[in-house]
Every structure is written in structure tokens, then in C-alpha cells.
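Researcher: Please translate sequence to C-alpha cells.
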Amino acid sequence: MTIIMKTKNQVTIPKKITNILGLGEGTMFNIVISGNRIELIPLEVKEKVFTKEEYAKLDMLSKKEQGKEKKITKSFIEKIKRAG
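Model: Translation complete:
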């Protein structure tokens, strides 16, 4: 899944993901940086245990979004060119 950083360095976590993970306004995250990767780990008082169905939804969402990165990047570059 591809997202774009907006003004003020903000990114939006897609609703499909927040629904599956049970995230909402005020959720706090620990940020882990490894090389050129950023990992957001929700901080919760209790551990979330995922069902097989939830893992299957995440896997399906990931597979559905694969390959769209180039299309989104190309669209973003064209938008920048038109603005310039």
C-alpha cells in the first residue's frame, strides 16, 4: 500500500488498516527506524491478539495494493510537473 506525505510531514493511515487494527484518534505509536524503513508500533495497554480472519484481511489488502506504487508515484510526479 502506498501513501503520500502531506504538508507538515503528515501521513494518513488508510481506514481499511485502522479498522482492522482497531486504531483510532489518540492512538500512540512507538517509531522504530531501521535503515531506510519506518515502523509504527501502536502502544496499547493490552496486547491485541489477531484472529486468522484479521490476518487474512491484512494479507488480502497487502496483495490487492501490490503493484500500485508506480501508478501512484507517476501520478504524483505529473501533478508536480503541472504545478511547476
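Researcher: Any highlights?
Model: Helices lie at 15-21, 52-65, 69-83.
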